[in-house]
Amino acid sequence: MGYQQNPESFWKSTFDDGGDATKGSYTSWLAKHPSALDNFDEMMKKAKGKDIVVFLDYDGTLSQIVEEPDQAFMTDAMRSAVHEVALCFPTAIISGRRRDKVFQFVQLKNLYYAGSHGMDISTPSGSSKYTGHKHQTITTDEKGNEVVHFRPAQEFLPKIQEIIKALSDMTKGIKGAIVEDNKFCISVHFRQVVLEEDVCILKERVENMMQAYPNFRISSGKKVMEIRPRIDWDKGRALQYLLDTLGFGTSNNVLPMYIGDDKTDEDAFKVIRRIGQGFPIVVSSTPKQTKAAYSLREPTEVMCFLIRLVKWKRSVSSSKSIA
Ligand SMILES: O=P(O)(O)OC[C@H]1O[C@H](O[C@H]2O[C@H](CO)[C@@H](O)[C@H](O)[C@H]2O)[C@H](O)[C@@H](O)[C@@H]1O
């Protein structure tokens, strides 16, 4: 399939799933979103000579989904795979979590981190462009290096703290409910709320309470309600911002790769689709509606894919140096 010659038709045929993917069996869904492992060689033929930039989601992609949000650790093997990938390609993690929390989990310095669904991005000034954008600021880190921050929801911080306080008070009586402070957004978790009735009460209370905050919106994730400022910013915009600031904004040769498992990752898949070149890869072992072109079943498959990517890159580089 020559998507480089005809991006429109490639993306149409690759992504349009008629909206009925959730109804079909896994096998028929897989035919529309083939395994990135099984199709690795074919994908890499398209990637040869391109500037690959890797984007990764965290929860459900680099770590397994677990009951307790604070316990979503990644394995050392996964950490090592991500580290190796980042030695080969510019690599960023774009997560719904607060940025410092993702860094605590990942602990790798050779990556770019975007937290709060992309509303908190920091990049070393040496590798990124400071454009004087109104949401950009520069600080100096402990080693004296300049860091460029992009925080489009900064003005919402006081309101977010007010909402967190109100949500924490309101959910106290609901066993298992957790309110997570993600800095520029908030997660209200109900994975550990056992009674279905309590889940309904929780959702209703949160929805009612948030009516008093029209500048915020609620979206849903995996057994979680996500509350965030109503601004035109999401993981897709964060991906584009990172491509721009890392110097790939006007490149016809860039090939972004995004691996993610949740609804908020769809915004990034859409941006890759719009760019017309790249690999949007969904992590799912069940059929779901998605704009992704490829799929991986679970984090262990993500790790295998990342390891293969590193091997591929090294083999391409060594054959170039021999020639
Ligand atoms: O964008 P992500 O990095 O995928 O973050 C999305 C949310 O992930 C976390 O919640 C999810 O994972 C938890 C740990 O496995 C699980 O307990 C929870 O049910 C899931 O929804 C995180 O806690 C949220 O703040 C993120 O927004």
TrEMBL record:
InterPro entries: HAD-like_sf, HAD-SF_hydro_IIB, HAD_sf, OTSB-like, Trehalose_PPase
Listed cofactors: a divalent metal cation
Keyword field: Hydrolase, Stress response
EC top class, as a word: hydrolase
Keyword Flavoprotein listed: no
GO terms, biological process: trehalose biosynthetic process
GO molecular function, one term: trehalose-phosphatase activity
Pathway: Glycan biosynthesis; trehalose biosynthesis
Transmembrane segments: none
The keyword Hydrolase is annotated on this UniProt entry: yes
Reactions catalysed: alpha,alpha-trehalose 6-phosphate + H2O = alpha,alpha-trehalose + phosphate
UniProt-listed Enzyme Commission number(s): 3.1.3.12
Pfam families the UniProt entry points to: Trehalose_PPase
Family per record: Belongs to the trehalose phosphatase family.
Function, as annotated: Removes the phosphate from trehalose 6-phosphate to produce free trehalose. Trehalose accumulation in plant may improve abiotic stress tolerance.
NCBIfam families: HAD-SF-IIB, T6PP
The protein, known as: Trehalose 6-phosphate phosphatase
